[in-house]
Design goal:
The complex is a heterodimer. Chain A is an alpha+beta fold. Chain A has 18 helices and 31 strands. Chain A starts with 21 loop residues before the first helix and ends with a helix. Chain B contains five helices and five strands. Chain B is an alpha+beta fold. The chains are: A alpha+beta, B alpha+beta.
Chain lengths: 739, 153
Amino acid sequence: MTTPTRTHVTGGIGTSVRRPDGVPKVTGNFAYASDLHSKDMLWGATLRSPHAHARLISLDTGPALAMTGVRAVLTQDDVPGLPLFGQEEQDQPVLCDGVARYWGEPVAIVAADDEETAQRAAASIIAEWEPLAPLDDPEKAADDGSLFRELKIRRGDKEAAGTVVVEGVYETASQDQAPLGTEAGFAIPDGSGGLDLYVTSQWVHVDHRQIIACLDMEPDQIRCHPAGIGGAFGAREDISLHIHVAMLSLATGRPVKMEYDRSESFVGHVKRHPSKMWYRHEADADGNLVKVTARLLLDGGAYAHTSRAVLANAAFFTVGPYRCDNVVVDAQVVKTNNPPCGAMRGFGAVQACFGYESQMDRLAEELGVDPLDLRRQNAMRGGDPLATSGQVIDAPLPTVEVIDALEAIPLPEPLASDDPRLLPGGTGLTTPASKVVRGVGYAVGLKNVAFSEGFDDYAEARVVLTRAGVEVHTAAMEVGQGLVTVCQQIARTVLGIENVAVVWDDTSHIGSAGSTSASRQTQMTGGAVHAASVGLRDRILADFGGDELRNDGVYRAGERIATIDEICAEGPVEHLVRFRHPETHPPDENGQGDVHAGFVVAAHRAVVDVDPELGLVRVVRVDTAQDVGKALNPQAITGQLEGGIMQGVGLAVMEELVVDHGVIRNPTFTDYLIPTFLDAPAVETRIIEAPDPWGPFGAKGIGESPTISSTPAVVAAIRAATGKALTRAPVRPQDIVGI
Amino acid sequence: MNVTITVNGEQRVADVAASESLLNVLRDDLDLPGTKDACEQGECGSCTVILDGEAVCSCLVMAADAEGSEVTTVEGMGEEGHLHPVQEAMLAEGAVQCGFCTPGFVVAGAHLLETNPHPSELEIREALSGNICRCTGYGAILRAFETLSEEGT
């Protein structure tokens, strides 16, 4: 059912090893969740609320049940167990519980013989609604006390004051992860009352915990399998159709497939939190930050999902990678009737970075100093306390080094062509090149790696030596980032054996690897694979009295003393590790404490060409320097840096989920714009290696940083070109033209 | 209704509904799931196939209109051990991450190189601007096609 990953690739850490799933992916043979099917399967479909807030007065499923080919119609009354789910807080009904709290909330589900019948049947269900006023204004929600979480940070002297003060109010829009593969799932009854589930996911074990609670089943009755996934970026961190497809399969005793189309996908997963941030930076006359005061407001939408953790990230990175002894932050994430928000690449740090980097530029302008010099002067380094929590992490943090490396990348030549493909607006442009204005902007961003605030964060991996080679067993989700390659590289390097396959285990065969999010898997599952490989190697060496393991056996002083077959004479030899990062703790009442496990820093420089008459922008280049700890696979790192930048560029100039009274107005790829090949800037990358104390071989998680500071860098460049304040991302043509 | 299409050199017959797209027929009826479904609007290019010599979004082609046509999908481009140069170049440059857009880029890119063996950077960008990739930022894909352009496959 899953795609084999044992293909002919070799190579240890530090080399750009090819992906083991690359050949299946370029030939169309890789099995994504949406490709799974069986002859006797049914199709599932979902009826959704047409209102952002409404009372469900009655629900008549009769018309659907009467249709030929319909095998089940289920509502909230049919949920066997806990009627609520949620990763952090179980607050969302599996199906509408009498009140719809967001537009598109699932109300009923249908299984039918084919996809079209299932969709027609879902549409035939008669729901009578009493529309209620949606709470769609986050500031009103804050005033009303409609909160998922409030976090106050008080550090240093509240009376402290600087002589140079800048204040600003900043906003970021909601962004969709828009992974190309939509939500898809396939449930297969096991004949004993249980199920095997293949659903797009970033963390099968946390899905599993919620699914068995809602189905009221024992853990071993439901097996969640890592399924092929067409991108994630946070959208797969929370439950979508998992429980629905399982319920339909249990109710019918048949395999059931569900797959959202693009429009349903837009309502079917959580978004990046839109934000509003009030900032006050105070510095002394020499440019040293004296105090930062901020209020952060995130809109969590209708249900909690990961909002609490997103808020913590925004709050703890309010100041960014800068030293400041006096900090006051009031952060809130509110509950509204807007689309539910949760994880997206950067996870709260994106919003804050737009605020603090906009402020650093304003402060530099107010002081009359170079914006990069101001950043270098205030840069947080390894051993400095984080401005907000006061936490000191004994690890390198090359903030100055990434700024220096970025600045050393040459700037591009001036625009010299009237080729419309190189001008803002592309081939539709009417302004000549001579009217186009260029701008350059910088930003630096800070992010934590792995889960924080005392969460018991671990990853389990089992490394097995068989006569056929090494197997790395894990449930960590490979979502495209290349974890599968890195796991092989780590095992090869430690074991000295080239033939390594990654085997994806379901939830009943291995413990949790934790989430593929928070830039954590290279360090966490990579760390588990490293530790398990070391444990296995050392045990084999000890058993045989050897000093080296190679492809063909155990060696002592250069002489082979046992073959692989002899090592495995009594069967495969294995070592299981549950890897944990250094302990973290919840913040105290002032937001102080050792909240995080590690930090990573990156810097971006954007060059833009702007047509000020039409308000159009072409992002010419975005260059970057990033701390990676240790580059395990340089090519894969470049891919993460370039890809992450593009999502940051998207939020800077085009990506915005337009929500009107709780209703998403642009839930299609026609109306929600994603950067294309022609929008994509050239990118030059500089990899800085400052080894992490607990990452495997010193590696750091790097997936999110590329997205965090690229957005404020692009907006800073547009400010430089236009002279406009531009306090909101994305920048729209009307913001530049001033209408 | 029955529709006869030559797919990857093989004549295939499918019983299709009047409303069905070529994409659906390829994936669901002809067991060729390599062609991907991501937007259903012709915006993302994940479903690109060659239809009678033209690169098209198969989600926008009615299956019934493909009667008598020749279609090439990603499954017809190459296989392990005999990869198409585009497939090989994308692997070598690290142009594959989640891979969901990859079949569309393989087909559209192969078509580009057939019609223009030495495309410039801008020609590559323009020709492939109908194919969205959400993972790579296009850098590795550009490098793959620049290499192919120099080689003049």
